[in-house]
Design goal:
mainly alpha; 196 residues; elongated; 68% helix
Length: 196
């Protein structure tokens, strides 16, 4: 009689495993009643709606541009407080032989909408969503001011590192910080969730 090997025993166990079809496994997620599906669809819908809204010329002219101009003046104030001689012209900050223009991608409006979409879509109480939305928006806005001020200082003192710092490092860290902020809100602020 041949001795049963470990591989043969493992193969028999795998054959005995319930052969549930892929459709049966994902079927609960296909219902809008499932909290994960509801969150994903609502989050994506809000994200598409906010992206569409931000792409409108009137929103850019009367909302995004004034916000970006305000950010430029606030960053200039931070840089002056740090001892740099800078001046602002609209959305451009200049000084120390360096000049940076804050474009619409750098005003953190999209990141704030991204965060708000995730907060609104998450199943939490209205007061928790309001607190998370308001405090999160303030935090992201302030974090963006610091990010732009640091990038300007890199450009002024080490211009050879500006492009890499701006495109790869600062942007990636900023998005990760927004995601961490959302997870922190879920972990620390959301006391009870109506998820069944």
């Amino acid at each position: 009689m041949q001795k049963e090997t470990r591989t043969n025993r493992r193969g028999k166990k795998l054959k005995r495993v319930d052969k549930t079809s892929l459709y049966q496994r994902i079927k609960p997620f296909l219902s809008f009643k499932h909290p994960i599906t509801r969150f994903c669809l609502l989050f994506l819908g809000l994200l598409v709606a906010s992206s569409t809204l931000l792409s409108l010329e009137t929103i850019e002219r009367y909302f995004a541009n004034p916000v970006t101009t305000l950010i430029a003046s606030q960053v200039a104030w931070i840089l002056k407080a740090l001892g740099l001689q800078v001046y602002v012209s609209g959305i451009t900050i200049s000084g120390k032989g360096f000049s940076a223009t804050i474009v619409s991608n750098c005003n953190a409006i999209f990141e704030i909408f991204l965060f708000l979409s995730a907060v609104i879509a998450f199943p939490a109480l209205i007061k928790e969503k309001l607190a998370g939305g308001i405090l999160g928006t303030i935090f992201i806005y302030l974090l963006n001011l610091i990010r732009i001020a640091l990038l300007f200082m890199i450009g002024a003192y080490n211009p050879q590192y500006f492009e890499e710092s701006h495109i790869y490092v600062a942007q990636s860290i900023f998005i990760v910080m927004v995601a961490i902020l959302w997870l922190f809100w879920i972990g620390k602020w959301v006391k009870s969730s109506p998820v069944q």
